[in-house]
Amino acid sequence: MHTSPGALLVAAATIGAIVAFRMYSRRRRNAALAAQWHSLQQQRTAGNGHLLQVTQVYQRARRGSKAVITWCDTGLRQDAWFWNWHVPPGAYLLVNATSGYGPHSRNPHVLYVHPTDVQSWVPAQAARAAQRRAA
Question: Which of 5, 101, 114, 119 has the fewest CB neighbours in a 10 Å radius?
Fold first, then answer.
């Protein structure tokens, strides 16, 4: 079986085009994520909430998610309940929420986050994309 040089050339050009398209798409996606991160930081600087990161989601229920969050300003960890939202692990959120008693865990310091308490959020990849673009 003999492959013609023309067929090899077409195959190489196709592979090159796919690689170039993927690199272009990744750059565009990273630029968009970095822009989301910078927008979140501008809102934070303007005093539009407190920044936290979802460290771990340990239960998903019909009416929301139970998670462990880390406050970005202090590094303190806290249990949280996100009403009507299956929050993605690693996400950064700018919130105005309140803590209260968690009857299921008997924890007096559960952060209750309603959808209206979330001013803005970005996926975990946004912070990394902004770091890569700054370097």
Answer: 5
